[in-house]
Structure formats: structure tokens, C-alpha cells
Prior knowledge:
The protein has 26 helices and 24 strands. By secondary structure, the chain is α/β, with parallel strands linked by helices. The protein starts with a strand and ends with a strand. About 3% of the residues have low confidence.
Amino acid sequence: xxxxxxxxxxxxxxxxxxxxxxxxxxxxxxxxxxxxxxxxxxxxxxxxxxxxxxxxxxxxxxxxxxxxxxxxxxxxxxxxxxxxxxxxxxxxxxxxxxxxxxxxxxxxxxxxxxxxxxxxxxxxxxxxxxxxxxxxxxxxxxxxxxxxxxxxxxxxxxxxxxxxxxxxxxxxxxxxxxxxxxxxxxxxxxxxxxxxxxxxxxxxxxxxxxxxxxxxxxxxxxxxxxxxxxxxxxxxxxxxxxxxxxxxxxxxxxxxxxxxxxxxxxxxxxxxxxxxxxxxxxxxxxxxxxxxxxxxxxxxxxxxxxxxxxxxxxxxxxxxxxxxxxxxxxxxxxxxxxxxxxxxxxxxxxxxxxxxxxxxxxxxxxxxxxxxxxxxxxxxxxxxxxxxxxxxxxxxxxxxxxxxxxxxxxxxxxxxxxxxxxxxxxxxxxxxxxxxxxxxxxxxxxxxxxxxxxxxxxxxxxxxxxxxxxxxxxxxxxxxxxxxxxxxxxxxxxxxxxxxxxxxxxxxxxxxxxxxxxxxxxxxxxxxxxxxxxxxxxxxxxxxxxxxxxxxxxxxxxxxxxxxxxxxxxxxxxxxxxxxxxxxxxxxxxxxxxxxxxxxxxxxxxxxxxxxxxxxxxxxxxxxxxxxxxxxxxxxxxxxxxxxxxxxxxxxxxxxxxxxxxxxxxxxxxxxxxxxxxxxxxxxxxxxxxxxxxxxxxxxxxxxxxxxxxxxxxxxxxxxxxxxxxxxxxxxxxxxxxxxxxxxxxxxxxxxxxxxxxxxxxxxxxxxxxxxxxxxxxxxxxxxxxxxxxxxx
Length: 793
């Protein structure tokens, strides 16, 4: 990502966020990764980072996640271990053991298939690493949890330590006897024993040192006390010393063998360290997210800002300490409106709101959850430019305004439609008239480059330009005119007034000064803000009315289409009923055909030829009439021309029989006939008797509806998914909504509980998959509040 100027992190206070994440890391490697963390501009990478952090946070909230404890950097140990014949120290192996035990815990955690399914993104990290359980076992056979060489590391070491222990007990017993002997003789000082040169010695007044046989190891500074190792324990101590040297040699041999065992797996151990360090950073991000009550917003690959209930993270943590509320803000900037011109009184929250956008964007693109509502939609920017605060430079001989012009030049040179521009007090630092004009020119160029941005200002000409220009929104920080205090609420769609006179009056400036200032400002100047407010309100009302009309027109068009479709269906049904009646009548004429033939034969035999001819003619006409009516009705129902042109049917197309409704796939076409496979049958059908079908499922719609009528009659509009897993919620919600749509339900009530919000996200994710304009809301607190989602169909 391109950042201008170089100190953008500091200007937006993102360096403080990195410090918070770093403080939550448990190892130096993780802390180093955080210090070098840079925002990504790749959609897949950011998406994966967010999923990793969200999964870790969810698992931690539910007390169902492994933890990364303290660990040390073993780079030096691994580097030396690569050297053939090198023997790792006991301390180095203990550090490796801590690392391997951590890795063991992580891999053991993901042995559960349910946990692999619950946290798939984290499991993908672990799955890429090959774990060798024998490495940890090899170290644990030699070194215990405290980092001490185990006595049972080898039979020889166990034997040596037994001998050392035996000799030490012998020394203890003998030394006690010697103390008692010389104590009774009165040869010892008040402090009867001490340690010198690693040996246990007697504390003897100098006048008695000739009376005790042994080795003098030391004397006091005054020379009044001698420290003597008595002859009785010298031999035993020498034996202990020899055994200790044997112990060191045996330990060195064991460590050499262990180092040789570990050497082929240096790359594996390196991968474990990399994995643990990476998970350490994820854990630190999750801890910060928990303290911020942060969520995972929806991610868009294109630049956009769709923040709902956003909060400045540093301000939120500061207010949290003192029990103060942080006022959230909503901001939506997309392709249509890309720049927010933010105005309002000083100390009203303009700069904080503007910085919030920048710091939240940097957090997002570093894979951190952000303090916004989970329904927020945030995009990805390739460049972020920030012009904030006093940037006077003595080194470069630049004034504040000169540095701002330098920034503007760099911004214009690099800005494009993937850039986010954040400018505080735009145009300030020089004469208001010329400064405002130059700022307007810069703003026009930035808007021409289709950048996204949040810009704060007090200049009226910039507010007016924002009102006129496409792609720019006015916004203001709300100010309570009664109490003359800021509310820190961001209002989009109308500029904010500076309330300079009101604030000056509250600050206690003399009345004479204010009267003079009002007179100099003039009525026209004072009325600009109010004029803009009125114009913006009228514009918003017009846009709202236009949107309502468009919505009503869409609704009317939909109702018209529905009416026409219903009317068409009713007409088809009426004709089908009539067709069934005519076909029944035709069948009835065939039924009585034999009786009529008998009657005509009787008439002929009775020489009533004319009467027989008349009866035969009537019968024939009746049959022809009914047959023609049946043919006409069939033609009208099944072969009536449609308003839209249908593409000719080709081999491989899915088709539906016009008369029967069965669907199948065209296997072969021969002139005006087609071979259609319907289930296990192969039918020869005229092409005119077929109509295109989308797929094999088209015919099942009517069957599904008719078979679900019983279920629809008993449908309950309440669903409780508490206690279910994420995947179960998705499947259950889908079946529930499907039944609701078939039952023509008006409103649904889905109980998911509050908790970490995972179940609520699952419900909303599934609802968004439907091509249906659902309206979602929550009931009052006493009726469940955020723990229940109301779905209006």
C-alpha cells in the first residue's frame, strides 16, 4: 500500500494500535512481526486474515480455543544445530522443548474433526505443517518440564546420580558427627559451619585452627576466623567431585545424541516456530478485538466505505476506562458519492471522525477486526493520503501552508480511483479568500480523479462546491444550540455550522466585541450556512420523494405483471376445465356409439331409411362439433403464441411436454419430431408439443407446492436455533424460510440469542442468499432485543 506522507501511521494514530497488538503478543518474534506489519491490498489475503482473527476471537469468547503461551526465539539454537557435531546446551534444548510442547498442544487441538470444521481457516494454517510427535518425546525423555536433565535419561546417569546421592548423605552424616565432636570441645565459633570454594567447612576461631586437622579454604578479612574442611570428609568430597565430573561427561554424551536426533528435523522445528509466532499475532489481534468489541465487516474487493456504528478505537478505549460513552457514526461512500466534506464547530468531533475512517481502514487491511457493526461493508484501497495537523518543517524550511501545498501536489500526482484522501482543516494556513479558492481547485482535481475521501473544513465556498458537485457529500457534526455543546454526532447530507459567535459568547467575550464581529461579518456571510442547510434539506426531500416514486412504480409494475400472470393462469385453467368437459363429452358420445348404431339398424330394418339417415347425420355432426371444440381448446391452451420469442429447441436442451407437463432432455431431433428422454423412458414427440424448460426441476414446482399444503396449514413462524452449530443454523434457517415462503407467511421470528453474535451472523448470511427483499429488525429489549431477528416477508 502507498502511504503519503511517510508519517501517516502517526498522523492517524495507527502506531498506537500496533503498540496495543504488540503488547498482547507473548513472544519476541510475534512482537517483531507486529512492528513490521503493513496493510495488504489483496482481497484474498485480507479476507483470510479477517477470518483467522474472527475464528480465534469466537473460540476465545466461547472458551474453546487453544492459547499461545510465552515462548523464546530459537533462531540461534537452530542455526547452531545445523552444524554437524554441535551439541546444544541444556538451556537451548529446554527452549526447544517449550516450543515443541506448544506445537504439540496446537496439533492435538485440531485432532477433533468438529473443531476443524468450526475453525477451518485456522486449521488450514496447521494443516500445511507436518508435525513430528517423536521430537517432543525425544526431548522429554532427556529434559523435564523445568528444563533439568532427567536422572533416567540413561542407565549410566541414573547410576552416577545414585552414587552421588549416597556420598552426599555420607558427607552429611560425617559432617554432623565432626560438628558435634568439636562443638563439645569448644573449638567452633557461634556459626558452626559455612561454604567455601563449593565445599562445606567449619567456622573456627583463629586460635583453635591448629587444633582441627583439615584443609583451610579461607580466612575472614580480620583474620580472626578460619574456614576448615575437616579431614574426615575430604575423601568423601573428593569422591563426590569425581562422580560429578562423570555426570557432566554422561550428560554431554546424552545431549550430543539428542542433538544428533534433532538435527535432521531443524526445518520442521523452524516451521513450528513460524506457525506459533503467526498464531501469536492472531491471538494478539483477537485480544484487541475483544477489548474493542470489534466485529468482522463484509469485505468488498473494490474501494468503498460502508461503516455502521463505527467508533475510533483509541478514543473508545480511553472513554471505556472512565465509563464514558463513545458516540458511534455511520458513513457510506460508494461510487456515486465518494467524498465527504465535513464541517462543524471546533472541538465538535470532525477530526476524530475523519481519523476514524483512516485508522479503521488501516486496521481492516492489516487483518484486524474493527469497532463497527458486523453489517458494515468496507472495501480495499491501494493508497491512503493524510494531511493532518501542523506539518511545519524547520529542516525543509517549510511553513504550515507550504507543507500543505507540498502534500496537495504529491496527492494530485499519485491519486486515482483506488485512493483514500484524508485532509484536516482543508485550505487553512493562509488568507481565507485565496486559500479557499486554491482548496476548491485541489478538491475539484481530486474529485475529477474519482478519489474517496473525508475532508474537514470551515470554508463556506467548499461547502457550496460540495453541494453543487457530483460525487461529493456535505456532512456536519451536530451541535446542541440550546446548551451550546457538541453532541459528536455525524450527520450526513447537510453541512455543519462553525457556530463561532455562539461559542464565543459562551466563552465570555465582551458583548461589544461580538456586536462588532457580527456587523463586520455581514448578514449574507452569516446566512450562507443556513442557506446551504435549507438547500440540502430540500435536495434530500426531493431525492427521497423521487426514490419513493420509483419504488412505487416498481411495486406497481410488479403488481401489474402479477395480475397479468394471474389473469393468464386463470384463463388457462378455465379453458382446461372446459377442455376436460369437452373431452368427457367426446368420450360419452363414443360410449353411446354402439347404442346409436343399434337404433339406426332397427330403423333401417323397419324401412325408416330417411329417419335413420337423419339420426346418423345428427350423431356425426355432434361428434365432429365436440371434436373440433376439443382440438380448438387444445390449440388455444398448449400452442397459443407467446409474446416473447422462444429460441428453437436443440439437442441436449431440457424441455417440457406442453400437454402432460413432464420434463426431459432432447436426445435427437429429426425434422419436426424429437426423441426425448423422460426418466427411464424414451419418447417420440412432435417439436410443437414441446416447450423449453430451464432444468429437470421445473416440473417439480407444482408437485412441491401441492405436497406442502398440509405443512403450510400447520406452519409455525417461530424458529429457535440456540445451541446449534454454525452449519446447523444455515441448514435449519434455509428449510424454515423455504417453508415460510410456500406457506405465504407475513413475518418470521428467529431466536438466536446474543452471545458472541455468531448465530445471528449465520442467520443473516443465509437470508441474504435469497433473491428476496426481506426486512430485518429486532424486537424491544423485553421481547428479546438483539437476541431475536424479526423477518418481514
